[in-house]
Amino acid sequence: MKDIAIYGGGGFSKEVACLINRINEKEPTWNFIGFFNRDSKIGEANKYGKVLGDVPELNEWKSELNIVIAIGNPESVFKVANEIKNENIVFPNLFAPDTVFLDKDNITFGKGNIICTGCLFSCNVSIGDFNIFNGMINIGHDVTVGDFNSLMPSVRIAGNVSIGNRNFFGVSSVVLQQIKIGNRVRLGASSVLMTKVKDGNTYMGNPATILKF
Description:
The structure is a single chain. The chain folds into two domains: about 1-90, 3-Layer(aba) Sandwich (Rossmann fold), CATH 3.40.50; about 95-205, Hexapeptide repeat proteins (UDP N-Acetylglucosamine Acyltransferase, domain 1), CATH 2.160.10. Strand 3 (about 45) and strand 4 form a beta hairpin. The chain has an eight-stranded mixed β-sheet, with helices on one face. It has a six-stranded mixed β-sheet with strand order 3-4-2-1-5-6. A six-stranded parallel β-sheet has the order 8-11-14-17-20-23, with no helix packed on it. The model has no long low-confidence stretch (mean pLDDT about 100). The chain has three helices and 25 strands. By secondary structure, the chain is α/β, with parallel strands linked by helices. The chain is globular and about 50 Å long.
């Protein structure tokens, strides 16, 4: 089995540890060695494993190690991924055993993606790098997703939607068909996006409108 560790110290990192256990129950794949994060001391532990260090320790790691970045904030994932420079570090995709692909031959994934339980991907779908699909998510036909996006539980993305980079989709939010989303957009929980959006803004409601702070 291949060595794997999780970067992150919050609740989602524990969920990803459980996901690794579920994958191993289906087919022994991963040897989970612990966590890395910047908010805990080396040796601190939770129910699932011990903290082994932070990015400096990863950048000095001498053997091949698979790392999953389990942080819900897209900007934090982007930062950590770009701080890790060690060629011994590999970023695998993790797929829950119950993930559904309507046409597995016509879907592509980059690296570092996390697909939690109950997700469904339709046909002709393209997924980039370091995206989080945090459970019970439906991705429609002909959808493209860029890099460093976080989709919270029960998000629904309809057909022919295009999503750029570093976007956040709140719990149970919906994007209707043919919408194009650029970069750094935040869609609030249970919001329904029906029109085009501007980069770097937050949208909430049904229909979703821009939220001004």
